[in-house]
C-alpha cells in the first residue's frame, strides 16, 4: 500500500523569520492522521530568514537530524559544540538525558533551507552525542547512500534506532529501485525535483508511506529523494 502526503497538505508555522511545513504533528499543529510513522516523529521543512533563528532551548530522549539544503546554519549546544552547517551537511544530536542548543542563520540576508528530523530512540536515558558529516550530490549519485543507521554502516551517522536513512540524487530520466525487507516499511520524502514513485507523481516536499515490497523511482526532473527504512 502507498499513502501519499502532499507538500501543500502539511501543517504550517509562519513567523517573520521562519516559514515551516510540518509533515507530522508539531507544536500547535496537531493531526491525528499524521502524528508519526513508526519511530519517525518529526519532519519539519524550515526556511529561516537572514539573521533569524531558535534561541537556546532544551531537548531530551530524541534523535535529532538536521539536513541543510541551502544556506548555512550556526549551531551551539551544552555539549560544547559550536559549528556552522553548510549545504549537503547532516548533523545528528542525540539528546538523551538532556541537551540545550541554539540554531541561527549567520547570514544577515540569505535564507537557510533545512529539514529537521526527529526519530524516537530505542530507549530513554542515553548519553548525549553529536556528529556532523557532509554527503555531496556526487556521493548520492548512482547509489542509495546511507546517511544514518543504527550500526554506522559505510561511514554513516550512527543513530539509536532501527533506522536506515538513505539518499539518492537522480537526473531526469534516471530510475532506481529499493527492496523493502518483510516487516519493515519506508517513508519516502522528495527534497527537490520531481519523480514517479511506484507510478505516483511526487514533487518537492511530497512524501509517501510505502508498505510494499519495493520502492521504484523514476526522475521526471533532476532531484533527490530520502528513504527512511524503519523496523
UniProtKB/TrEMBL annotation:
Keywords: Iron, Metal-binding. GO terms for molecular function: metal ion binding. Gene3D superfamilies: Jelly Rolls. It comes from Limnoglobus roseus. Residues 15-119 form the Pirin N-terminal domain. Its cofactor is Fe cation. Belongs to the pirin family. PANTHER family: QUERCETIN 2,3-DIOXYGENASE (PTHR43212:SF3). Fe cation binds at residues 57, 59, 101, 103. Signal peptide: none annotated. Residues 147-230 form the Quercetin 2,3-dioxygenase C-terminal cupin domain. This is Pirin family protein. Binds 1 Fe cation per subunit.
